Description:
2 copies of one chain form a homodimer.
Chain A: E1 10-12, H1 20-23, E2 28-34, E3 37-43, E4 46-50, E5 55-59, H2 65-73, E6 75-80, H3 86-94, E7 110-111, E8 120-121, E9 126-132, H4 136-142, E10 144-155, E11 159-160, E12 163-164, E13 175-179, E14 182-190
Antiparallel strand pairs in A: 1-10, 2-3, 2-6, 4-5, 5-10, 6-9, 7-8, 9-10, 11-12, 13-14
Amino acid sequence: MSTENTHEFRVPVELKRSFVLINHGPTVLVSAHHAGRNNVMAAAWNMPLDFMPPKIAVVIDKSTLTRELVEASGELVLSVPTVQQVALTNAVGNHSGHDIDKSSVAQFSFGAAAKVSAPLVEGCVAWLECKVLPEPEISKKYDLFLAEIVAAWADKRAWVNNRWVFETQPNMRTIHHMAGGHYLTAGEVVN
Amino acid sequence: MSTENTHEFRVPVELKRSFVLINHGPTVLVSAHHAGRNNVMAAAWNMPLDFMPPKIAVVIDKSTLTRELVEASGELVLSVPTVQQVALTNAVGNHSGHDIDKSSVAQFSFGAAAKVSAPLVEGCVAWLECKVLPEPEISKKYDLFLAEIVAAWADKRAWVNNRWVFETQPNMRTIHHMAGGHYLTAGEVVN
């Protein structure tokens, strides 16, 4: 469940393998913290950007509170939600932290990250702790943020020997937003 | 099959809906053309960047021939391969056009795009014709290319009323690279 405490299953992922956590294109949750405020939003528009040091790219709209917190702190976390967290993902994606406290519209808990101030979203299947690479012109022009992954984690029930094993954990499959709150789930593996 | 002629099923997609074609994070094929040469590579690292005008972002390594062709022409096509094109995707992803003619290691055909010189890869399920947004510093520093979608197409067997219907077309499901030639396929829909 989205509020499940997954600490006991959370294991570190080597930085050089951390790109694999989002290589298959899941929708993610972007969280950030600044001056006592946390927020989280949904972002289908994310991707790996480099292997080592590992980097990611993510689009964060100017209208969002998360954007303000990311720009103020220079840090963010990408949490990878599961098929059990569709309602949570839609809820934090369809409301702005400027208007409401998102904990009033979605069931979730924040947990502490290891290397950044931004919080992890509990119950997800992977987490990428990131420090923003300062590229203010790119961010201003395209709402695009580039960041270095400084720590990475996965739930060991679905991540074995540095690869996803969703076939054994259907409840932990990642979700891939099409549009309008409709998602494709991670399906069978082909080689 | 990867060499299937899909012209009769190819329908235009409204630009304002074209982001949906890759919103769920599929691995794509990037093709380009310049001065009589075509090439194509695989790219898991791609995402939508904006709605209207629609834009995409894609990582294209400096070592690739496709990079040279994209930089020389300012144009590229993203073709979205299906579960029937895993071998093709791996083959064009694991060889460089600098070393070989990729048609010698993979079964595929190029078709003509409508608005750019870069070719479409036949047998795919969607195609985004793109003009590169000149951002040479970003490309040089991060191997990152931003481009505007100027025409978009989908195979009407899997794209109905501006949404994917893979549940009716399992052979046309998109593929999502994890690592090492292992892909997750697009699975069931959740709302």
